[in-house]
Amino acid sequence: MTVFQGTGALFTLIAIFGVINYRFIKLPDTLGITAVGLVACLSVSILGFNHPEMVAQARKLVAQIDFSDIVFHGLLSLLLFAGALHVDLSRMRRQRRAVVMLATVGVVISTAAVGGGFYYVAQWLGHPISLLWCLVFGALISPTDPIAVLSVLKSAGAPESLETKIAGESLFNDGTAVVAFLTLVGLATGATEFSASHVAVALVREVLGALVLGAVLGYGASLLLRGIDSYPVEILITLALATGGYSLSEVVHVSAPLSVVIMGLVIGNHGATKSMSEKTREHLFNFWGLLDELLNLVLFGLIGLEIIALSLQLHIVWLGLAAIPVVLVARGISVAIPLLALQNFRRLNPHSATIMTWGGLRGGISIALALSLPDFHGREMLIGVTYLVVVFSLLIQATTLGRLVRHLSARQA
Fold first, then answer.
1. For 315-344, how does the pLDDT look when each residue is reduced to its tens digit (9 = 90+)?
2. CA–CA gap between residue 153 and residue 146 (Å, rounded)
3. Are 35 and 304 in contact (CB under 8 A)?
4. How far apart are CA 365 and CA 406, in angstroms?
5. I need a labelling partner for 280 at 20 to 30 A (CA). Which of 5, 102, 143, 244 fits?
6. What angle do helix axes 105-124 and 314-341 make, rounded to 10 degrees?
7. Around Cβ 154, how many Cβ atoms within 10 Å?
8. How many C-beta neighbours within 10 Å does residue 174 have?
9. Within a domain: residue 33?
C-alpha cells in the first residue's frame, strides 16, 4: 500500500466514524470519533475469535501507522500552533504564576507520585515493574495534553481564570515532561547517570532556548507579515513558521512543542494586531480554526484505531484500571500543592483543585511517548496501561467535565 492509498483509507475510516457518531451517538466530534474507533476495533477483535486471520490482517495494517512519528513530526506542530494562536496572552499573563508552577513543579510532583503509586500497585497485582520504569510512566502520563484540553475547554464552561490556568499549563508543561522523560529513560536503560546539574542544564536549555527561539521566529514572522497584504501568502508564512520552526527547534535541541506555542502566541496576539489587515485576520483565524478541528479529528480517530495494534491481555487491563485512580490522585496532589503555595498571591476559586484534577486530560502525546519507549521487560504493559488511562481520560473525564463545572458553579452560587 502506498502512502497516498494509506492516507486515503485512513481519512475514509475516520470520516465513517464521524458520520456514525453524528447520526447515532452524538458525542462531541473528537470524542465520538475516538469512541466509534474503539468500538470498531473491539468488534474486530471479538470477531477474531472465529476468524483470527481477520484480526491478524487488521493489526498488520494498523501497525504500518507510526503513531509516534505522526504525532511528533506531523500533527503536533500544527495543532499546538493553532491552539496557541487563539489564546489571549493578556489573560495568561494574569495567571502566569499558576501556569509556571503547574507546568514545572506540578509535573515533577505528579511524575514522582504516579511512579511511586504505580510501582506498589504493580507489585500488589503480581506484575512488578522496576521503580525507574514506573517513574518513566509517571513522566509520560503527567503532562496534560493541550490538544485534548483545548478542544474540550471550548464547551466546558469553566470560569475564565480557571480555563486560562488549565489551557496555559497544558501548553507549557511539555518542556518539563520531555526532560523528565528522557532523563528517566536514560537512567532506566543505563545510558546516563543521574546528575542534578545535568538535569537542571537540560531543563534550562530546553525551556529557555525554546522561549527565545520561539519569540525570535514569531516576531520575525510578524515583521515579514507587516509588509504583505495577501492573505494566502500570509497563511502560507504561518504554516511555514509552525512546521519549519518546529523542525528547527529539534535541530538545535530545544523544546519544539514549547517553541511552537510561543510562535503561536506571538502571531495570535502581536502579529494579528500589528501586522495584519482585518480581512487577513479573519481569513487567518478561520483557516487555523478549521485546520485545528480537522487535525483533531484525525488524531482522535488514530487513537481509536490504535487499540487493534495493542496486545491488551487481562493482566494489563487490571493494571490499567488500577493505574487510573493512581493518576487521578497524583494529579490532585500536583495541582493542590502549587495552588496552596499561590494562595498568598491571589484569591483562588474554592473548586479550582477539583476542576483542574478532573480536567487534566491525557491524549495523543502520552501515547506517542509510550510508543517511543525502547525495548525492556514490561514495555507492552506500560503501553497498554497508558492507552487505558488515556481512553478513560477522553471518554469519561472529558465528557463529564462540563457537568462537573456546572454542578460546582451551582453549589458555589
1. 889 999 999 999 999 999 999 898 888 775
2. 10
3. yes
4. 28
5. 244
6. 150
7. 10
8. 28
9. no
Domain harbouring 182, CATH code:
1.20.1530.20
**Residue 341, pLDDT score:** 82
| Residue 410: pLDDT over 70 | no
| Residue 346 clears pLDDT 60, i.e. is over it | no
The total of structural domains in the chain comes to 1
Is 303 among the domain residues?
yes
One-letter amino acid for residue 192 of the chain: T
**Grid cell digits, residue 172:** 507549557
Section 241-259 average pLDDT: 93
Percent pLDDT > 90 in the chain is 30
Question: Which three cell numbers mark 209?
Answer: 532556548
How large is the average pLDDT for residues 144-149?
Answer: 81
Q: Are 259 and 214 in contact (CB under 8 A)?
A: yes
Q: What is the DSSP string of 99-167?
A: HHHHHTHHHHHHHHHHHHHHHHHHHHTT----HHHHHHHHHHHSS--HHHHHHHHHHH---HHHHHHHH
Q: Is residue 391 part of a domain?
A: yes
Domain that includes residue 192, residue range: 68-412
Which helix (H) or strand (E) segment is 253 a member of?
none
* pLDDT computed for residue 349 by the predictor: 61
pLDDT above 70 coverage of the chain, percent: 93
Joined together, the cell numbers standing for residue 65 give 501507522
User: What is d(CA 320, CA 322) in angstroms, rounded to the nearest whole number?
Assistant: 5
CA distance 331 to 342: 17
Residue 180: inside a domain = yes
